[in-house]
Amino acid sequence: MITKIVIIILSVMGLVYFLLRPSSPQLPTAPLANTSSPTIVESPDGKASLTMKKTLSNSLVNYTFSVDKPIFSKTIASTNTISIPHNTWSPDNKYIFLKEDQNKEINYNVLSVTGKEFINVSSLFREKYPDLKLVEITGWAAPTLLILNTQKSSFWFNVINRSFILLSSL
Question: What is the top-level taxon of the source organism (predicted)?
Fold first, then answer.
């Protein structure tokens, strides 16, 4: 009989302890980075692939671009974007170009697939032709020539010597 009473008392004490025990402290948690699925764009000949990975953390987005290995990475506000245009690959697979939209200002950047060269074509164009507005870069005319369109004229941009060649004007 005493054994049953001891068991009941111990059971009640265990229940009371369980109900009244202090809860474990809540540890602050860091916001998790949100990584989207990578975007992969193959070169027209299928011999190379450009991979874009986006990682969102708080109000920033980190973009990482790779061709076999990382060639470019940039962190910008989440309200801005970097995208891979349709005709991003140069015909010889040595260059790509990217479109960056920051606060409604569009910048086109050329990168070598080795990651050794970076050219902000838009910035160079604004310096050379302050009265013209670069509307878009449509692709490659040759392995080192990008096609640029403005509201009035078209140009080639020579990646090697960083020069602009006027093609036509409206």
Answer: Bacteria
